[in-house]
Design brief:
With 328 residues, this protein is α/β, with parallel strands linked by helices. The protein has a single domain, classed as Nitrilase/N-carbamoyl-D-aminoacid amidohydrolase, CATH 3.60.110.10. Helices cover 23% and strands 24% of the residues. The chain contains 9 helices and 15 strands. The chain has helices at 3-9, 36-52, 96-105, 160-163, 191-199, 225-240, 293-296, 302-305, 312-316, and strands at 19-26, 57-59, 86-87, 108-116, 122-129, 135-140, 172-175, 178-184, 204-209, 243-248, 251-253, 256-258, 263-265, 271-274, 281-288. Strands 1, 2, 3, 4, 5, 6 and 15 form a 7-stranded mixed beta sheet that branches. Strands 7-8-9-10-13-14 form a 6-stranded mixed beta sheet, covered by helices on one side. Helix 6 (225-240) links the parallel strand 9 (204-209) and strand 10 (243-248). Helix 2 (36-52) packs parallel to helix 3 (96-105) and helix 5 runs parallel beside helix 6. The radius of gyration is 20 Å and the shape is globular. The mean pLDDT is 97. Bound molecules: 4-methylsulfanyl-2-ureido-butyric acid.
Length: 328
């Protein structure tokens, strides 16, 4: 819209609203040897509870179906087999039940899992399933944190860079009456994630996470985990005029304390629903997707105010390039 068109249009006019009841379905710890069947029982219970409450979209965390296995150098663990943590089909024999119950109840969901493709590629993946049980979208985590080699000095490992390849795009889909995008855990700390999704028209961004409270490279960040998690998602929501649903696998999983604090955030930047505990729990909110217009068509009207021609450093550089040091 040009400045003249904007002047003629005047202030934003309220519409009837595109209402959607959404749940952040937080999952508590999943044991090292907990079966898929047991985890799926827990997910079905959360989904049934959500359906009974009129929820239309249930968002589960990152790597929901198993324990967070990147905390181990799996090759060194006698009782663990790496491939056991990955899904080779979706739905597969154990997850089919979740799809069936969801379709029966007319509830959509978003689910994070480790994906092993037929040609041997491994991704940290999240899917979006519509209310009829059809998979409408698949996202593969772009920002893989941690390290690729075993680092024995750490209390626990974070070997995502060994166990997964990185995804290479931020797709969006028309679903649930709006435009939906996904991101996974560490992606939420990078502003590029939200901006790329919002440039794809995202109005609703679904993010699963597993965030250990202890950050070995700089433990001074430990006490700030909850603050940082909300800080980045609230900023991402506001600066892009989006709703954000952030969902944890929280609690003490195999001795590693992980952040809970799952939440739903409005385009205002405000948290509008929040879990109270660190186990299996729903946080529910009624969201009006038309509220995104209040931001997307005013302060953050991208096509009017953005200056991509001045942002080339963002796509041409990876690290900082400071000015040369002055020679004395
Ligand atoms: N799962 C995941 O991405 N977790 C990271 C942990 C910090 S990096 C070791 C996160 O950003 O929350």
């Amino acid at each position: 819209m040009t400045d003249a068109e904007q002047a003629a249009a005047g202030p934003l006019v309220e519409t009837g609203g595109r209402l959607l009841r959404v749940a952040a379905a937080q999952v508590g710890p999943v044991g090292r040897h907990e079966s898929r069947a047991s985890v799926v029982d827990r997910l079905v219970a959360l989904l049934e509870q959500a359906a009974t409450g009129g929820v239309e979209l249930v968002v589960f965390p990152e790597l929901t179906l198993t324990t967070f296995f990147p905390r181990w150098n799996v090759e060194d663990e006698d009782d663990l087999e790496l491939d056991d943590f990955y899904e080779t089909e979706m739905p597969g024999p154990e997850t089919q039940r979740l799809f069936d119950v969801a379709a029966e109840r007319g509830v959509g969901f978003c689910l994070g899992y480790a994906e092993l493709t037929p040609d041997g590629h491994r991704y940290n993946t999240q899917i979006l399933v519509e209310r009829d049980g059809s998979i409408v979208g698949k996202y593969r985590k772009v920002h893989l944190p941690g390290h690729a080699e075993h680092e024995p000095w750490r209390e626990f490992q974070h070997l995502e860079r060994r166990y997964f390849e990185a995804g290479d795009d931020f797709p969006t889909w028309r679903a649930f009456g709006g435009v939906v995008g996904m991101a996974i855990c560490n992606d939420r700390r990078w502003p590029e994630t939200y901006r790329c999704l919002a440039l794809g028209g995202a109005e609703l961004i679904l993010i699963g996470y597993n965030t250990p409270m202890h950050y070995a490279p700089d433990p001074s960040q430990d006490m700030l985990q909850s603050f940082h998690s909300h800080l980045v998602m609230q900023a991402g929501a506001y600066q892009n005029g989006c709703f954000v649903v952030g969902v944890a696998k929280g609690g003490n999983e195999e001795g590693v304390e992980s952040l809970a604090d799952s939440c739903i955030i409005a385009p205002t930047g405000r948290v509008i629903a929040l879990t109270a505990h660190n186990g299996d729990e729903l946080a529910v909110a009624d969201i009006d997707l038309d509220l995104t217009r209040n931001y997307k068509e005013t302060l953050f009207q991208f096509d009017r105010y953005r200056r991509p021609e001045t942002y080339t450093a963002i796509t041409t550089q990876r690290g900082p390039v400071p000015p040369p040091e002055e020679t004395p």
